[in-house]
Amino acid sequence: MTLRTVLRNEWRLLRADRALGLVLGVFALLFAYALANGMAWVDFQEETLAAAREGNAERVESLETELQRIADGGRPSSPFRDPRSPSVLGGAAGAHTAVLEPGPLTALAVGQSDLLPYYYDVSIQTNESSFLQNGEIENPLNLLVGRFDLAFVVVYLLPLLILALSFNVLSGEREQGTLALTLSQPVSARGVVSAKLAFRAILVMGLALGVSLLGVLFSGGFGSPGRVALWCAAVAAYALFWFTLAAWVNGLGRSSAWNATVLVGAWLLLVVVLPAGVNITAGLLHPLPSRVEMITAQREASNEAVNQRSELLARYLEDHPELAGGVAADEANRAALAWAATDAVNRRLEEVTGVYDERLAAQRTLARRYRFLSPALLAQEALLDAAGTGDARFARFRSQVREFAERWRTFFVPAILAGEQMTADVLPGVPAFRFVDEQMREVSARAAIPLAALGGLLALAGAGAVVRLRRVTGPGS
Amino acid sequence: MIRHIVRKEFTDLLRDGRFRWCAAIVGVLLLVSLGSGLVETRRAEAAHSAAQETARDHWESQGEKNPHSAAHYGIYAFKPRLPLSFLDQGVDPYTGTSVWLEAHRQNDFLMRPAQDASAGQRLGALTAAQVLQYLVPLLIILLAFGALAGEREQGTLRQLLATGISRRDLALGKALGVAGALALLLIPAAIVGSAAITVGSPGPAATPLARGTVLAAGYLAYFAVFVALSLAISAWVRSARTALVALLGVWVLNGLVAPRVAVDLSKWLHPTPSAVEFARTMEREIRSGVPGIERPDRDETAARLLAEHGVETVDDLPVNVIGVYLQESEEFANQIFDRNYGALWNRFEQQGLVHEALSVAAPLLAVRTLSMGLAGTDVEQHRHFATAAEEYRRDLMRRMNGDLAENSRTGETYLATADSWAEVPPFQYDAPSLAWVLQNRTLSLAMLGLWLVGAFLVAGSLVRRAEVA
After folding, report:
1. CA-to-CA distance for B469 and B464, rounded, in angstroms?
2. Residue A320: exposure state from Cβ atoms within 10 A (0-12, 13-18, ≥19)
3. How many angstroms separate the CA atoms of A428 and A423, rounded?
4. What is the pLDDT of residues B207-227, one digit of tens each?
5. pLDDT tens per residue, range A1-45
6. Which residues, numbered 243 to 302 in chain B, qualify as contacts with chain A under a Cβ-Cβ cut-off of 8 Å?
């Protein structure tokens, strides 16, 4: 009797077992459903972004027509919206929508993409408070519950499938009385358990990875093979962890019922209780700072700024001597005065936000330490990072939008201060946003941490399994 | 006889190491989540009421100013935390905490706490409500899965029935035994909870004790459903192991699968517009009006006023045309906001109904909706607050435009005095009554009642037919 015989035998048993076939069928359906959900979400995002781009084009077009009309001797349609004024052309009327394309594998993991904004209208009014805006319109109740996507099925439900298939790989043989017979052949208990689990692992991981790749295929994610590989590695490591845990528990030599209870308990502890405990602990020890104070600070800054406009302009020009030459001699250059006030508010806001962001970052670093306790949290982190729907990619988007807003200001502010008039000729030169996506190197470096930790837990369970299984000799043990 | 069954079951459970461990874990989580919820709610409420006071100070100390400038300056409203929100934070992390009330515009609520939290924190947020909704049912399953199936497996069921006790009394005794063990866990939590309620919270009065009592009754009904279901399945299937597997299946379906399916189903049945689409529609309608809601025109307003007062020029008018026109614009815009925001809120509520209706497959959905409603943290009560804030904004704008229209003439530079801002009443929010909340939650209440009756009937029938061996 060889391991191949074990495998072939398992295949026959599985085909004969209607219940197992049913469970696998149900899971195949769940996977398909999750994938369909994820793909519908990507479609929605892509339609939205197309509408945003269309809005961009329409704005530019209408400004161009208006500027052309004025150049031909027409009058501006409203004195407050004269597009020749750089504070109008660079303001809300001429805003540019900076968009973040859905992550390459968003169809597999919705992640934070339903909560965090994936487009911002950038204009000279963009400042730190612009980043407080909400993301997509979504029922808060739906945000609270979360989506039924592939990441959810993998993190929560896949372990249950694995445990249902493998809680009795060894104990079942013993209870049927076939263990003694099997071990009388030239195979070890370790070999039998490994072969049986390997067979199940191929089945389960084949299903999970197959559906993932299918999703990637449908949503065109093969453009980033590195991310696909990361996703697969995370799924495989997480699934193997649960198989190994099952092997270990089987090696303890107790009854199938005992194994089932312990394994379900482990699932509850690691997937449900620990993440919750981790978050409670982190929330109590390192509470999230409240943003409410930011509003007060912002108001105070703008009150002050309005009261001291002309003083602020003088100070602004002191800080930016290169612009001083270009300021219109007319003391009553209202746009320049207004800009100086806006700039003062922006600086103050940046200070307040800077302090807040530091506290937030510190809180997150502290809170994230505890995630090493739970394979579910680790797997989720790696999966979202691979999919490009984790926190990091959104943070990157925000920081690029910040830089873009700075470029936008550099383009328009000198013209505002100089009291210049704009023409249709400047339109082609107006800055446009292009998101520079993460390098695969950065993504892998980041995802390596949770993956390594997951690997560590896997190794721990593996060591336990090897030690225990070595001691299994026969039914009497 | 039934007394002996209850006592035996109760003592058995207390001696069982598994129960002690599980109960300890659930109990600690419950107390910790109650405590952390209380700390968090008080911290947030303190921050919000302080910010609300500062916002009022800012408003009052504007100095001499044109009323329309003051209208543009506006005021911020901060959403208060209701006393019971420490039990169930509901959708609060996903709704904004503050809104800017300014001229011409109904703004969105900004600063959702969840946007600052990480993806991992979203996965496993834990409140007392979640312990009650997820972990306590699990504990019930672990306590009760073997109640009848276990006795049958050990052959003790036959002996028990030989004493003459009816199957129904036996099951009732088992149920009461489980309930007693559970009470050891829930009574301390209830004491801590009600102490926290009576000590009081600085939030708006919202009859917290009455709300808390209904909340407790709702949870007790939910637990009773699980006790009945566990006994029913334990009576029905052959082995304790099968009972456990089946009950865990029910738990996964109830707690993990059904809620998320409800999300997708509700979005599919009642899709919401994208933010881009929503903003564009609103912008278009504000710019050019819609049939039946016409955009006011300044010249027409002036002409109408001239005719009304029978004078020739705007200079002879006793009112400022700009003030009247601004108010007309506000009223026009308000109708557009009501149209669009109203439709969106209604969509959200329809989606909420899908969640509630799906509780036919998962009682969790009913008890969760009820719990959020009573804690004051559901979508409807967010809408209630948003509406109150918007009403206040409209009143504020009416006052500002009225001041401008009545106390100045067209074309003149008018500054309201520095002390006039304090005459505007401060923003005061009254939380909805218990009746209002329950009226919104009739479907959940009915579903929970249905589950309770159904689970007991099924349990009764299965227990009567339970096989001895």
Report:
1. 14
2. middle
3. 11
4. 788 888 899 999 999 999 999
5. 566 777 787 788 777 777 777 888 888 899 999 999 999 999 999
6. 244-245, 248, 252, 256-257, 259-264, 266-267, 272-278, 280
